[in-house]
Amino acid sequence: MDIPAAKGFSTLPSDCDALLEGSPAILYATGPGWWRNDLHYVSYNLATLIGATRAQLQSTPTLWLEHVCDAQEVEACLFARLAAGESRIRLYYRIVCAEGHVRHMQDDIAVQRDAAGDVIELIGSLADISETRVALARLEALADSERRYRFIVENVSDAILLMDADGECRFASPSIRDLLGHRPETLHERGLLELLPPDDAPRVQRLIHDASRHGEPLRMELRMRHRLGHYVWLETCCSPYLNPASERYEWILAVARDITDRKHREHRLHELSTTDSLTGALNRGAYLSCLRSGLEAADHVSQRVSLVIFDIDHFKTINDTWGHAAGDLVLACVGEICRTALRDHDVFGRIGGEEFSLMLTSQSLNDAALLAERLRKKFESVRVEFHGEWLSFSVSFGVAERQSREGMESLLHRADMGLYAAKHNGRNRVHQAPPQPV
């Protein structure tokens, strides 16, 4: 409301006073002494704020100051700005209302001055901004919380991924670049299951779906393809978000960390515990375990399995004549030749000092005998250099094909009998074991 500069509240006609009384605005007018004296006008709703009447407040203006928090600081601020010659002043302060709770007020003051610039009257309009201050405080707290979480997300070494129910990436933290070589924005709306090995994707998808359907977190180890093509081992914890209304999961939060080095160490430790360091073959326990598992798997798909057992002829003579170092060199040579000649799924084991065995899946007795013959010729032709001398050796083989549902011990025994026959008939030969009597 514009107030004529020449006429203050103290000189307003009665009809204007009645108009002001009907306004919801919280108004006051005072002389230069502000609230301490000379309170010209105060609206009824201002007096009500502190539980006083207009008459009480006008007769004792200091009643208002008793309800103003930090009144001295507020007065000091006002007087400083008046002294600076300001004509429009806005103050913020708190008051303790009649009910005892604290309200935040915005006080807009119009300063009336005379020709000399001296203050004649202050006309104030108060506004209760408590709800606005609370809302602003909440917004500030929310913004501060967002800044904290953004700082955490952008600086944590683990990768944070958010994907929808279809598996499409909706957010990737910056650390994904160090982990998988991708910029976060390049993964947006991309199916993350595409980065899994093809044989792993269905299993991982099923695990995530089952865990999400029950609203349970899922921790698992999996591989994901790096931008450069190789795979990285990740330990991943997936947490689904269920929509309370539909009880369907809409988001999946995944936190992943690189465990590639750990998996390599575990693989190395497993190799050390299952592999013969001299020949690279599985040790006896690991080989027999693979043989047992292989036979069980073959039963389910009616797969043929053949077994080869072989050992080095006159190996004791080599050790006695040249020493154990020479014997180890011959063993290492046998291991190298076998590893280069076999298929990836063939199983090669060292089951005794100089005795070895091969498990050949999908191979007939004749196929196994042909492979054994090729190895025999290779061993017969190879020469091993030892301190300037060239050592030669030969190998004898026993071959057996598994009969219907034949047990592991029986199959091993028949292949071993084939080896015994090869030794008995002059060594350096392949002997096929006869079928087991029905």
UniProtKB/TrEMBL annotation:
UniProt entry tagged with the keyword Ribonucleoprotein: no
Is Nucleotidyltransferase tagged as a keyword?
yes
Q: Where is the GGDEF domain?
A: 303-435
Task: Outline the extent of the PAS domain.
Answer: 145-215
State the UniProt keywords alphabetically. Answer: Nucleotidyltransferase, Transferase
Say which enzyme class the record assigns: transferase
Q: What is this protein called?
A: Diguanylate cyclase
Its lineage reads: Bacteria, Pseudomonadati, Pseudomonadota, Gammaproteobacteria, Oceanospirillales
